[in-house]
Structures are given as structure tokens and as C-alpha cells.
Amino acid sequence: MTTANNANSTNNSVNTLARQLVQDIVPYASARSSMSGGAVWLNANENALAPAYQLEDCFNRYPSCQPKAVIDAYAAYAGLTAEQVLVSRGADEGIELLIRSFCEPKQDSITICPPTYGMYAISAESNQTAVTKVLLKDSERLDLPGIFATHPKLVFICSPNNPTGDLIPREDIIAVLEHFKDKALVVVDEAYIEFAPSASVVPLLSRYPHLVVLRTLSKAFGLAGLRCGFTLASADIINALKKMIAPYPIAEPVAQIAAQALSAKGIAQMQQSVAIINQLRNDFSTFASQLSGIIKIWPSNANYVLLQVSNAADCVQALISEGILIRNQSSQLGLTEVVRVSIGNPDEMQRLQQAMLTYFSTTKRASA
User: Fold this and answer.
1) Closest CA to 222 of 252, 195, 201
2) CB-based burial, 6-40: b 16+ in 10 Å, e otherwise
């Protein structure tokens, strides 16, 4: 048997050792893993207006599991106590911890509302937790009767929702909270809330001990590469999550930069970039509304805009040929032929608009 055959045989035998679930599961396809190349990246909802930070050289010691400076700073920013805050490797780890801490494998389920963020389902499936999907009405509003008919341990609501950009009305979230009192945790994912801060449900934490809010520094703060997120909840929920979190989830460089980002100066910088991005987003939506090839534009309260076009794959490929990456979201339940455009800096948006003008004028002539 050749060396190559030996290697293949070994790989096959190792693969059979993996849990059946691991062999069967379809992993989450992140924007970065599914697309590469290009000069203008508008496919991952990143903040192109990123500030710079400085590090101190003191990395020979293990970091704190929950760095006090970071926890205190985020608690102050969110208007909470330190006991209500957990910091983790992005909000994704918060999702994972909630499912691992509160869902019994092969017994419990979560409820999600597609089209929405894909990691809720992936994390549940990887922890042998069933996923009940209740589609948004018109891809925008909660189907409250449908949600109330489910029996989950966790309900995930994304607001502003990814990829549609819409805000879930506060009264709908309150209705869900009221229905699931003493039955389930209601998790509101506010990854993009800085783009619409008045819509935050954090003030409801004092009224509803089963409410959990997820936050991140990846979006408005421009720190996607840092992988730093937060779970906001009652002290009892936070203490349960602390039992499941890794010993050192936050690296020392991450803690240092996060503390700087959450300083008064850092928050002011974030708010300034949010104002610029919101204006760029509104300008882009106005531009897109004037293109005959755009079928629908979702009103957005985040740093991206969802567009329905005639042929999403063709549109994405045409922009790739111009060095511009946007994301095809047509595989999402409830959506057809849609692309999501992340808002870049002014130069990137100008380049995108010129490429879109060329593409849609060309397709219009071809169909005439």
C-alpha cells in the first residue's frame, strides 16, 4: 500500500471515531470562510471605520477569566451592575454557553425566527438540542401565535435582525417575555443595537429575570477581529454561565483593547462612526431605490442593507469581478434572490455604487 493510501486509510478511520452528529452537521459558513479575495469587503457586516489601539507588553501571565476593567466598563456603558455582565469570545460563545447551560441534550429545544442569524441553530444542533423555526411574517415581524405554540427552553430574537435589518417591535418582545415567564429564557441578540440604541431592551432586564441580551464589540465598535462579546442578564443566569465558560476565555490583548474601546474616548469614537455609517446606509438605500433592477429594499437599522434582485448569484459574481464582495443570502428561509450589502467607508460605497450602476444598466439592456 502506498503512503498516500496509508494516509487515506488513517483519515477514514479517524473520521469514523467522530460523533455521528459531527459527521452529519453542516457547519456555519461565515462570510470570511465562504468568500475570499477582492479589494472591497462588504460581505461580513464589519465596520470599515476602525480606530487604532495600543498594547502593553505583559503577556507572560494567564489573563483573568472575567477582566474587572472590561466588566466594569461594559456594565457602566450598559447601565447595569458588574454582576449582570459576562464577557466571552464574541457573542457566539454567549449563544453556545446559554444552550449548554440551560438545554438538556436530546430533551430540550430552542425557538428561532428565520430569516435570522445562523449560529443559533448550529450551536443547538451541535449540542443535540432541537430547533423549532417560526418564520418571521413578511420577513420582518414576529409570528407571535406561532412562537407561543412552541415549547422551548430558549427563544432567540435578533433585533436589529440579521440579515433583514429590521427592529422587532418592543411590544412583541414584551409579549414573548410575558408568555414564557417561568417557562423559558428569552434571548435578544443586540449585536447591531448601537445603530439604533433607543430600541435596546436592556431596560427590561429589571422587570424580566428570564431576559438575556447579547452584545458585541464586533460591529459598531469596529473590533470584529478581537472576538469580544457580552451576555447581559440577571446575576443568577450569569453565575450559571460562569460554571460552563472556559478558564481563560479572554486573552490579555483582547482585554486591554476592549477596555480602551469602552473608555469615554472609545465610546465617543464609536458613536461618531455610527453616525457616519447610518448616513452612508441611508444614502445607499436612496441610491438603490433608483435602480430599476432592485425589486425590494428592506429598511435597515444596522450597518447593512438587504436587497432583492432578479438573480442574486449573478449580481454577486458581477461585483466579485470588480473586486467587491457582498453576500448572497438567498439560502435563508423566507427569502428569495436577495443580497446583503455591508456599509463600507465612503470610497468603498462610491466604488460599489458605480459597479452596481454598470451591472444593472447592463442587465436592463440585456432583458430589453
Assistant:
1) 195
2) eeeeeeeeeeeeeeeeeeeeeeeeebeeebeebeb
* Collapsed DSSP state (helix, strand, coil) of residue 189: strand
With residue 9 as reference, give the H or E element that holds it: helix 3-17
Q: Is 173 helix (H, G, I), strand (E, B) or coil?
A: helix
C-alpha cell at 239: 453565575
Q: Enumerate the H helices of 103-169 as residue ranges.
A: 119-126, 144-148
- Give pLDDT, residue 291: 95
Measure the CA–CA gap between 281 and 239, rounded to whole angstroms: 39
Model pTM?
A: 0.91
Q: For residue 327, give the 3-state DSSP assignment.
A: strand
CA atoms of 86 and 216, how far apart (whole Å): 11
Instruction: Write the pLDDT tens digit of every residue in 166-224.
Output: 999 999 999 999 999 999 999 999 999 999 999 999 999 999 999 999 999 999 999 99
